[in-house]
Q: What sequence folds into this?
């Protein structure tokens, strides 16, 4: 089995619609794909309706958190999307995205960048606006060559010149809420230092003690020594070690299935979850 547990669609900051994403996942030879848009489950219904035969969909979300000033992304799988407390927190995060993005545009304008809110809104479309949309605008304007280059201290990296904080959950609260909603939580790209500051390993241990289920080990932003280090940490803490592409369509260079999760780990995730269940493909209907 080929299992990719971290992908994004146009419901947040990917470039594939949810229907396109599941069709592309099947074409890439995946058996299981998780749709984990930022702070939203809005793409799940479309993905289900288009799900090709032979592909299983894991519903999820990537929840924005912050710990001691450091951004933390928590992958939440198979939770009940209607559980009131978790839903309320996700809506607070999502509702703060537009004011935050507008403030970042204003900061960039103060730095002399000829960016306009209308440009960012066009790029975001119906998705939950975020930094990747602003990064894409900077690429369009020729300010930076790639989206990744925009995530630098000169521009929109954590603490960068044009960075603006947004409402984010405490990760300990997020772990508790995901578990209460019947879901499974995995720390996304925990040691991706190229993205900015990361939390110390002691914080991962504390999150593990608080109920965190796993850490994303195999990821494009982790080099081989980092993966080995994380795999050892996961073993020491009894955490599940996952792998995934963090696919965003054409917005990033990673490919669907570039990194995958061991079937035994996937089986344990589905065993622990009770808020929702994987959806087997039945041929799809959206073309």
A:
């Amino acid at each position: 089995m080929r299992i990719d547990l971290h992908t994004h669609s146009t419901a947040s900051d990917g470039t594939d619609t949810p229907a396109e994403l599941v069709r592309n996942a099947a074409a890439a030879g995946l058996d299981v794909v998780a749709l984990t848009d930022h702070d939203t489950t809005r793409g799940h219904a479309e993905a289900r309706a288009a799900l090709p035969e032979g592909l299983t969909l894991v519903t999820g979300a990537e929840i924005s958190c912050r710990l001691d000033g450091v951004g933390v992304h928590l992958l939440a799988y198979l939770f009940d999307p209607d559980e009131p407390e978790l839903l309320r927190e996700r809506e607070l995060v999502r509702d703060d995205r537009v004011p935050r993005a507008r403030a970042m545009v204003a900061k960039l304008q103060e730095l002399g960048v000829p960016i306009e809110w209308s440009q960012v809104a066009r790029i975001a479309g119906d998705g939950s606006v975020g930094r990747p949309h602003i990064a894409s605008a900077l690429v369009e304007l020729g300010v930076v060559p790639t989206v990744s280059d925009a995530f630098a201290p000169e521009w929109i990296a954590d603490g960068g010149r044009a960075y603006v904080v947004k409402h984010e959950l405490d990760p300990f609260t997020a772990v508790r809420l995901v578990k209460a909603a019947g879901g499974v939580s995995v720390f996304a790209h925990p040691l991706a230092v190229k993205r900015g500051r990361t939390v110390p390993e002691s914080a991962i241990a504390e999150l593990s003690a608080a109920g965190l289920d796993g850490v994303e080990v195999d990821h494009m932003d982790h080099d081989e020594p980092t993966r080995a280090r994380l795999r050892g940490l996961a073993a020491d803490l009894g955490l599940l070690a996952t792998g995934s592409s963090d696919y965003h369509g054409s917005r990033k260079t990673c490919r669907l299935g570039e990194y995958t999760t061991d079937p035994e780990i996937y089986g344990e995730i589905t065993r622990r979850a009770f808020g929702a269940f994987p959806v087997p493909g039945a041929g799809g209907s959206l073309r």
In short: DSSP finds eleven helices and eight strands in the chain.
